[in-house]
Design goal:
By secondary structure, the chain is mainly β. Helix content is 6%, strand content 45%. A five-stranded mixed beta sheet has the order 2-26-25-24-23, with no helix packed on it. A hairpin with a 2-residue loop joins strand 10 and strand 11. The N and C termini lie far apart (43 Å). The N terminus is likely disordered.
């Protein structure tokens, strides 16, 4: 897959949360499996609003009145463009994006505003074609990047190392306990019957698992990635690395994954709101959001006890908190529009990103949660 097509995928699916996206899915044979971890796509992006969604699901009705939060501290203009995602450990905030300039990884010390950058776009030493995700594990920052590698950084030694990795693992995926756990789809399965995969650290064998939810009436073509494209989303692993949550882009819902037992529980309000059209001239299937489709959860954060999901309607931004059995716990609302969230592993701090009047990102910190 050309690097620019994957960059486009993450730019759109991770950053632009309220727009209709056209996905072009090319049929991929088994010889291309090693480079076909994501869907090649192109896009036409008409702006839509939540107000025009049909038969909208009210995700708030399962909760008591949402408590409005005001930030205890705000770091204004911490980054000048919307990142794909972020994480915070102590006084250091980590951001990743392919749209931040030359470097795709940024660490900001919030105490003195010192900044450290890494991973220029490219294929040479110290470079990456694309950063897919970041995750914190103990004193280590794990950065999953293309081509198929996970770079590890010591958080407490960033000033000394200038954000240089101490280890590089040649495997794709987000680090879990004993496994490289990734949201890979089973491209070799003509029935499109599994959603997730695990890759052991010391083995190249891929274990595919997790059945797709029942009740989806869409007829997906076999032998391509149309169904996987419709069910695309974002994976977040718990601090103890035993479970994960997966939030969907076109569907309204989330999955709870048992990473050790390789089981999945589905919590759906709407299956993927998509249409699929075959383009004869290009010999491809086009996966497109239906007219007025409703975005569900926009981002996720987790602790070992709870799942935090970002939800936005026409009135405000909310964080809806569920337990790992999918039961609603409580809800928060915010004074500003929230675009990304991160939760401290202990659950004592909630971080949000919002856009200010200068189109820069402010980092808001909430301690009374």
């Amino acid at each position: 897959m050309p690097w620019w097509s994957k960059q486009m995928f993450y730019w759109i699916s991770e950053s632009w949360t309220c727009r209709d996206i056209w996905h072009m899915v090319f049929t991929i044979n088994s010889r291309l499996y090693s480079i076909a971890k994501h869907v090649w796509l192109c896009c036409i992006i008409p702006i839509i609003s939540f107000a025009c969604a049909r038969e909208e699901v009210d995700l708030l009705k399962s909760f008591d009145d949402a408590k409005k939060l005001s930030p205890d501290m705000t770091v204004e203009g911490i980054i000048d463009s919307e990142p794909f995602g972020f994480a915070v450990r102590d006084s250091i905030a980590f951001f990743y994006s392919s749209m931040m300039g030359e470097d795709q990884l940024l660490a900001v010390n919030m105490n003195d505003n010192k900044r450290y950058t890494a991973l220029k776009i490219g294929r040479g030493p110290g470079e990456a074609v694309h950063v897919n995700s970041i995750a914190l594990s103990g004193d280590t920052l794990n950065v999953e990047a293309e081509p198929e590698m996970t770079l590890q950084y010591r958080i407490d030694r960033i000033p000394e190392t200038l954000l240089k990795p101490f280890n590089v693992i040649e495997h794709p995926g987000v680090l879990g306990r004993g496994e490289m756990t990734a949201y890979l789809h089973n491209y070799d399965d003509p029935e499109n019957s599994t959603m997730y995969a695990s890759i052991p650290r010391n083995d190249s064998t891929v274990v595919f698992w997790g059945k797709f939810p029942e009740g989806d009436k869409m007829e997906y073509p076999a032998f391509d990635e149309s169904k996987q494209t419709a069910y695309q989303g974002h994976l977040v692993i718990s601090p103890d690395c035993t479970k994960a949550v997966f939030v969907f882009y076109y569907a309204i819902g989330f999955d709870v994954l048992d990473l050790g037992g390789h089981t999945v529980r589905h919590f759906f309000w709407k299956h993927p709101q998509v249409n699929i059209q075959y383009i004869d001239m290009l010999s491809v299937n086009l996966v497109k959001g239906t007219d007025g489709w409703q975005r569900g959860f926009c981002d996720a954060g987790v602790t070992d006890k709870h799942i935090y999901l970002l939800y936005k309607n026409t009135d405000a931004s909310f964080v809806l908190i569920y337990d790992w059995d999918g039961e609603p716990v409580k809800a928060y609302s915010f004074e500003e529009e929230v675009i990304k969230i991160f939760v401290e592993p202990t659950g004592t701090k909630l971080y949000t990103l919002s856009i200010d009047e200068n189109y820069e990102c402010d980092l808001n910190i909430y301690t009374r949660v």
